[in-house]
Amino acid sequence: MRHDVGYVVWTPADYAHRPNTRYPVIYFLHGMGGNESRAAGEFTSLLTRAIAKGWMPPVIAVFPNSGRSDYREKVESMIVEELIPHIDASHRTIAKGEARGVAGLSMGGVVAVWLTANHPDLFSLAGSWGGNLLHMEEEALPAVDRNHAQLETNGYAALLVNGNQDLLDAHAPLVKLLSERKIRHDLVVLKDTPHNLGLPCERAGEQMPRFIGTQLRKYQGLWQDKYDIAISGGCIVDGTGSHW
């Protein structure tokens, strides 16, 4: 992008003590007006609890700053062509699409679906909190339709979480298409929940990590022969304010 872009990398507590261990990676995309530090602060506490309770395996989490870009064009290229290779080169990741996913809030939740559907070779899951999928319907739906065979073959899955006081029809076209194409998805509608970035995380704080954990563990057998896989641990924050 020809300029520095902020990002935060969060690693499990045992990362420094297990030098032969590699980890799945979750990329977390903030909402409009957010930034990498705020997103990391909100999501890493949830990860810490989820890993401690065994809902999901230890993961590396990456929080890029997209500004107010909607993650389109140059920012999409930055994530796919620059950030992911950089993280795989600089951290002990399992550099496979089966071990990589995207989750996000609001704008980031919309892009989590679009980005993963547009690059089915790079990701195995999408988690959307409060994402108005109508906002990117022209991008997300063609990506799902175009790549549905690879998404289904890869075992791709999406979790869509919205409030009943938010845009109730925001996921309807996507859910219809995912159902027609037999792509696994779950839709969660939260009671008494407007478009408030904190509420979906608070009220669906268990569903998202359980979903991520279930999806990642589906593929864990594929990694066992090649990698020492992390199976437990708490978490720490590493790399705040870094750039690439």
Task: Tell me about this structure.
- The chain has 244 residues and is an alpha/beta fold.
- It has a single domain, classed as Rossmann fold, CATH 3.40.50.1820.
- 39% of the residues lie in helices and 23% in strands.
- The chain contains 8 helices and 10 strands.
- The strands form 2 sheets. The protein has an 8-stranded mixed beta sheet, with helices on both faces. Strands 2-9 form a two-stranded parallel ribbon.
- Strand 7, helix 5 and strand 8 form a beta-alpha-beta unit.
- It is globular, with a radius of gyration of 17 Å.
- It starts with 5 loop residues before the first strand and ends with a strand.
Order of helices and strands: EEEHEHEHEHEHEHHHEE
Biggest beta-sheet profile: 8 strands, mixed
Helical/strand content category: alpha/beta
Find the CATH topology.
Rossmann fold
Q: Using the alpha-carbon principal axes, give the shape.
A: globular
Spatially, the strands of the biggest sheet line up as 8-7-6-5-3-4-1-10
Under the CATH scheme, which class? Alpha Beta
What's the overall average pLDDT, rounded?
80
- The number of helical runs is 8
Helix fraction by DSSP (H/I, runs of at least 4): 25-40%
CATH level 4 superfamily? Alpha/Beta hydrolase fold, catalytic domain
Uncertain runs with pLDDT below 50, 5 residues or more?
A: 230-244
Strand content: 15-25%
Domain module count: 1
- Taking all Cα atoms into account, the compactness measure Rg is 17 Å
The total of beta strands comes to 10
Please identify, by name, the CATH architecture.
3-Layer(aba) Sandwich
What is the end-to-end distance?
Answer: 10 Å
